[in-house]
Amino acid sequence: MDVTTYRRIATEEAFAPAELLECYRRMLRDGQGDKGFQSLWGFYLGSTAERPRSVVRRLADLGAERLADMAAAGIDHQVLALTSPGTNVLDPATARSMATLANEVAAQAVRDHPDRFTALAAVAWQDPDAAIAELERAVTRLGMCGVIANSHVQGTYLDDQRFWPVLEAAERLDVPVYLHPNTPTDRMVEPLYEAGLDGAIYGFAVETGMHLLRIITSGVFDRFPHLRLVVGHLGEALPFWLPRIDHFHAAQVASGRYPAMKALQLRPSDYLRRNVWYTTSGMAWQPGIMFVRSVVGADRVLYAMDYPYQYVPDEVRHQEELPLDAVELREFFEGIATRLFHLTV
Q1: What is the extent of the structural domain holding 273?
Q2: Which of 32, 34, 50, 128 falls 20 to 30 Å from 270 in CA-CA distance?
Q3: All residues at 6 or more sequence positions from 160 whose CB lies less than 8 Å from its CB, including other chains
Q4: In a domain, 263, yes or no
Q5: How far apart are CA 152 and CA 136, in angstroms?
Q6: pLDDT at 3 over 90
Q7: What are residue 275's phi and psi, to 5 degrees?
Q8: Residues with a known catalytic role
Q9: For 225-254, how does the pLDDT look when each residue is reduced to its tens digit (9 = 90+)?
Q10: Per the domain annotation, does 213 fall within a domain?
Q11: Is 242 inside a domain boundary?
């Protein structure tokens, strides 16, 4: 193939079945969910402003409007993922049924438009046995290319070993786990919420960057060395902290200050270079992209838009103006995603 041509593959593109949105509406009416959920989805489902209304409409559309938006932006292919918080705020029975429904909806969209969509599996993380069974079904029968983890599950993180069998299944199936932000838990949201910082402006990065560090320091990647994890927004700032993270991890292990902080086989930064991939979702910023490429490796950084939450058609053009040659641009927009998600279209 001519290296000057490539498909632009966007790898963090959200959708939501109408049934899930209606479930969220019921939860809001009944006062269910934590403060972050009430804040985020109370806004999107309750506001009359144009932007939240357009986001909700686009989340539920896996047809004409989404395809038109992709064409307007120059996106050739989307990797679909169930929007945050997905099933994570639901009771186990509802989470199981909603994950199955979401996977069927996404699989139908892929069948309808196989050249335009692939999808990540949704699972009920609250029920690890069911999550494993659904992940296996989604990958082996529906052809899905990974699994979405919408961060904490009602305040519990994936460093908790009850979730590790699901991570083991992802490693065995050779599919990546996409760690996507959720709103901060009630234990950390209050100072963010009172300043209006609990969402994408900062709270998501605080919550998800911490989650990724918890996964690393718990020894997940020593236990599952071939597990692949994808994180958006250029790594939620962690690439900018690599030397400091390594220094104080070593110091805290040596001091024995924290029972949870154990010695690892490698430095934390080594796992961030070996097991983690970084998408540019919501971060169409040349200095940041080039910096992250320089510290984690150019083969770890790939394109995503964060549709429909941050739908900015011109960002594709801006990222095509990165100081990269034709081969590097093809890798950034297509090659890395194709290998990471085992795409065949």
Answers
A1: 9-237+269-338
A2: 128
A3: none
A4: no
A5: 22
A6: no
A7: -110, -5
A8: 306
A9: 999 999 999 999 999 999 999 999 999 999
A10: yes
A11: no
